[in-house]
Write a structure and sequence with these properties.
Layout: E1 7-11, H1 19-31, E2 37-43, H2 44-50, H3 54-67, E3 75-81, E4 95-99, H4 110-120, E5 125-127, E6 136-138, H5 140-167, E7 173-177, H6 187-199, E8 206-208, H7 225-246, E9 253-256, H8 266-275, E10 280-284, H9 286-298, H10 301-316, H11 318-322, H12 345-352, H13 363-370, H14 373-378, H15 380-389, H16 391-411
Parallel strand pairs: 1-2, 1-10, 2-3, 3-4, 4-7, 7-8, 8-9, 9-10
Antiparallel strand pairs: 5-6
Helix pairs in contact: 1-3, 1-16, 5-6, 6-7, 7-8, 8-16, 9-10, 9-12, 9-16
Length: about 425
């Protein structure tokens, strides 16, 4: 699946208005001699919240490509889908993120286990993955735990993949998401998962594991950087091994979900993907919506008034708006400012803008507003009018954010 390229970047856009600004950031990378394939992604949950349809993402991507005369490859991601909701995306998407997290921990049928073990039993005991210092050891107990935790989920991924393949004649890319679970997967578990995907004949292009540490929405990574570096490198080495061992696609690469604004791990990932000559896919989502909000606040006047409406309602509806994100939030409600303390758009924007060194930056404020796009969706007419009124400032914000804070640290030396 060459269209996905070595480096790809998920440009999430809650309201579908910033495709052109996002693509400008990718074009800036092209000017530096680095090809990064843009992948416009929007989850089923986001479509339901905003009231959009899958075809809107394809339209946004196509329009941006046409307006900027972009000649490179690009894709549209049906993000976090399963059999129950994939059909509306089939016509409009060419990248499918199959989410099987709900099946992790559910036990497969004994017949499925027996048949898979005929394929996998030769890895019981010890074997070496090149580059990993210690030998991999899989005991009978550990194997049973992995069977119990992951085999059914990978079988389900296979069912979704075959359904998509049966409906689409054109080329598409496949991602399997296993990140929205409680515990990170070890390199051994990742090896097992990829073996199971190969067994179920899923030509996976990107795999999204869960890593140690906190990948909270819209804020930087929190965790042990040395531990993350060890896990990330070992996972890369597992991918290199399974490509040859199981004949998985040669462009198989890691995908980082909730990857926007994880600034402290970008240098680590850049160093390692270059060291091992491997690709990377990173997904962003709410960071673009927050740049829109920053642009409105900075514009003062009715832009700031609208931004204040969003925040005031977000405080009042805190439980409702954060309900779907509790596992990826770390908000101390005591650190959220009272609305009356926000006296200007300048103050609001500086509190929201993700600049770790700024004394004004408030990650609790930022995380809550990350979840508050539903309020803007409920006031869509006013919101879209203000986006157009302040178009230049907002586009500059979006392009600068993706290029300077994300793409350059990830892929440029």
């Amino acid at each position: 699946m060459a269209r996905l390229g070595k480096y790809s970047f998920g440009v999430g856009d809650r309201f579908g208005e910033e495709g052109k600004a996002q693509l400008k950031a990718v074009l800036k990378m092209q000017e530096k001699g680095i090809e990064v394939i843009p992948v416009w992604n929007k989850s089923n949950r986001e479509h339901e919240t905003v009231g959009t349809k899958p075809e809107s993402v394809r339209k946004e991507a196509n329009n941006a490509v046409q307006e900027l005369n972009y000649k490179g490859d690009y894709l549209v991601d049906a993000d976090h889908i399963g059999l129950q909701n994939v059909d509306p995306y089939l016509k409009h998407s060419d990248f499918f993120t199959i989410d099987v997290a709900d099946y992790i921990g559910e036990k497969a049928e004994e017949k499925d286990e027996r048949e898979f073990l005929e394929f996998f039993e030769k890895y019981l005991g010890e074997f070496q993955i090149p580059g990993i210092e210690h030998r991999i050891e899989i005991s009978k107990m550990q194997l049973q735990e992995m069977l119990d935790n992951f085999l059914l989920a990978m079988k389900k991924a296979g069912e979704v993949y075959r359904h998509i393949a049966s409906e689409k004649s054109e080329e598409f890319s496949t991602e399997v998401s296993i990140d929205e679970v409680e515990n990170p997967q070890s390199p051994v578990e990742l090896f097992f998962i990829l073996a199971a995907l190969a067994y179920y004949k899923v030509p996976v292009n990107t795999i999204a594991p869960k890593f140690t540490g906190e990948f909270n929405k819209g804020v930087d990574y929190r965790g042990d950087l040395q531990q993350f570096e060890k896990e990330f490198e070992e996972d890369l080495l597992v991918l290199k091994f399974v490509i040859k061992e199981f004949g998985l696609p040669p462009n198989l690469k890691l995908s980082i979900h909730s990857g926007s604004d994880k600034f402290s791990i970008y240098p680590v990932m850049q160093k390692l993907i270059k060291k091992h000559n491997m690709g990377l896919h990173l997904k962003t989502a709410g960071t673009t919506w927050l740049e829109e909000l920053i642009g409105l606040a900075e514009s003062e006047g009715e832009g700031f008034e609208f931004a204040m409406l969003i925040y005031t309602e977000a405080l009042e509806r805190y439980d409702e708006l954060t309900r779907d994100y509790t596992s990826v939030l770390s908000i101390n409600k005591k650190m959220l400012p009272q609305p009356e303390s926000l006296e200007s758009g300048f103050q609001y924007a500086n509190m929201l803008r993700h600049e770790e060194d700024s004394k004004h930056y408030n990650p609790h404020f930022r995380q809550l507003l990350h979840c508050a796009y539903k309020v803007a969706a409920e006031n869509k007419e006013a919101y879209f009018r203000l986006l157009e009124k302040h178009r230049i400032k907002i586009e500059d914000n979006v392009t600068y954010n993706l290029y300077e804070r994300h793409l350059k640290p990830l892929f440029l030396k």
